Queue: 2 jobs
Job 1
Amino acid sequence: MLVNSKKMLSNAKKKKEVVFHFNINNLEWAKCILEECNELKTPVILGVSESAIKYMGGYDVVASLVYSLITDLEIKTDVCLHLDHGSSVESCIRAIDAGFNSVMLDMSKKPYQENVEKVSEVVRYAKNNDVSVEAEIGSMGQISGDSLQLGTNTNLEDCKNFVKDTGIDAVAASVGTVHGIYKGKLNIDYKLIENLYNEIDKPLVLHGGSGLSIETLKKCKEAGITKININSDIQDSWSKAVRNFIKENPDVIDPRKIIGAGFQAIKDVVREKININK
Ligand code: 13P
């Protein structure tokens, strides 16, 4: 069933479990993730970036694709369709109008007051449409090549005020992770996660979940993270499987066989991550 993320995240927060957000790029990604989560009987958030939306054709295409897969594949588990890193109020409204159940407005690089004002605007629109809202405070680090440019970890007091001032349903906090697969050792601030968990009434979101060991993901969960976003790990596994397939089968031209060679790799990543709740 399609739902917003409020109930799935508040249930998980109470049990100190994690709901995974997996980014989708196309029909195949959505299908594999839905099938695997349905088999594992676990709720899931399908995150879609604006660039992935553009790639697939638009907000309506994405919504109808996900809605139709849920019907045709008879998916029974709860699914939330979420706009990842929305860059403007307009983009969030467009997603909500298309049928997304959850949106993120990322104004984390803007001054505090502007972040609050824009996010509050989205919250007002979202509430009238039963849609949940995530927003970010603090800023994530960036990987460029093999080097890491550190971000600014979320400040506890700012975060408390931000949640109160905006009325958001989930807060993305910067605690030392980066988007993408960083090969070096990251300095994750588990104490900060614990403090945020104890003092903030809303679920905490960890962006940049790829490249972290299962042990690290479990430590983040135990410290108080409720939602973990995964994108690059799936892309990495899928592309390795497809590259191998093409190398070993240079004469195959059927795109279903080539693209499909990576399906099990997508499912394996999904299963491996979800199993941290066991
Ligand atoms: P990764 O690519 O590091 O998994 O990050 C995904 C993410 O945070 C999407 O919002």
Job 2
Amino acid sequence: MARIVLSSDHAAIDLRQAIAAHVTSLGHTAVDIGPTTTESTHYPLHGQAAARQVASGDCDLGILLCGTGQGIMMAANKVPGIRCGACSDPVSAGLIRAHNDANMLAIGARIVGDVAAMAIVDAFLGTEFEGGRHATRVDMIEPADL
Ligand code: RB5
């Protein structure tokens, strides 16, 4: 079972809390770092706070949400060691684990419905990294010079 950090901006409070409960029901430990109100806030703050918990090893995986899933994914990927993909379907969510060893998943609460979001989470959490040729490629993902 994994220790999973969750965060979002104001656009995804209800869905994030529902996902935290779902993750807990699966036997994982959900570390929900908020926010808890729908007051307008800034997705980079929350995405990077969660990403630091994964990068430091305090959590195994992370799930992020904002309106589209895109902004918070971009912010998380600026934290060294983070591989976060924004997914709107379960196939992609499984493949970012299997092929990219993604350690964070981003979902757009204004893009996907609640049922689809749970299926996306299930695919992400239920898939292992395949390693092999994919490990060679993941190892090549490094900050690039201009
Ligand atoms: C907030 O209105 C919205 O811009 C944010 O949730 C997200 O969609 C950004 O990528």
